[in-house]
Here is the input.
Amino acid sequence: MTDAPAPPVPSPVDAVVIGRNEGTRLMACLDNLASQVRRIIYVDSGSTDGSVEAAQNRGAEVVALDMSQPFTAARARNAGLAYIRDTAPPDQDPLIQFIDGDCILDAGWVPRAAAFLAARPKVAVVCGRRSEQYPDASVYNQLCDREWNTPVGEALACGGDALMRRNAVEAVGGYRDTLIAGEEPELCLRLRQAGWIIWRLDADMTLHDAQMTRFLQWWKRTRRAGHAFAEGAFLHGAPPERHWVAQTRRALLWGLVLPVVIIGLAFFSPMSMGVAALAYPIQFLRLARRDGAIQAWFSIVGKFAETQGIVEFHINRLLRRSRGVMEYR
Here is the structure.
């Protein structure tokens, strides 16, 4: 009787935490990670609240980004990736848990995700359920929580929190430093083009403290999404990917084209203007029937914020201006 082959042994896991002025949220993140990973690399983007010193006191290895260049989450993650590459033992298949500094990692996530990658050699990225820590604190937190409840199984992309094969990420060039948002889907697109698979597990992964209590915060975050849509479509909008082309077109239709048509009709045919304006309540009723009134309302209003981000991206592109991180807090 021959013994069954032993299951693959999961590789050691290092964590890359990124943050800027996260305060107590960062401390909670680092304290939570201490017993779950081999090393913690904290990459700081110009914090002024003592985050660097506090992270060092907790045993994290700190990388402080050069303040002379625009801060982006992509740049911070690449800095953590490079630091691990230069200082880590030569593991056969090293894994990195990327996590934002305002998140707390679920206690069962790392062993489950690492075992999944060990058993699935073609999977480069695995992510789970990110949940809002305080969903009842505001309607904006509820919207975030719903947004993060993504389909389970093979996926097109992950979010900011994910367990990745370092070798795979480095082979495609890492994150794109210049992206101020949408850097994870763009990375995942290049990984998929290289033959890798992205997977969403049906498992809790992180708790996130959005601290979004004001409309202006939500608007800024949605505007940032529009910027990401526009830049993603500009970079990878050609077939077969058509990356974020549909999202960009929808935003421009509802946030720019239709308003311009309505305003134009006001001068030539007020009755036609009224008919055109009915598109918004009709769309609201259609979405409300499917997603509920709150989601429908913010989906429609959000198209104007997304359009602002889209226009801003193209103006900056034409003027050859770089844009740093777009914070909403």
Confidence is low (pLDDT under 50) at residues 1-6.
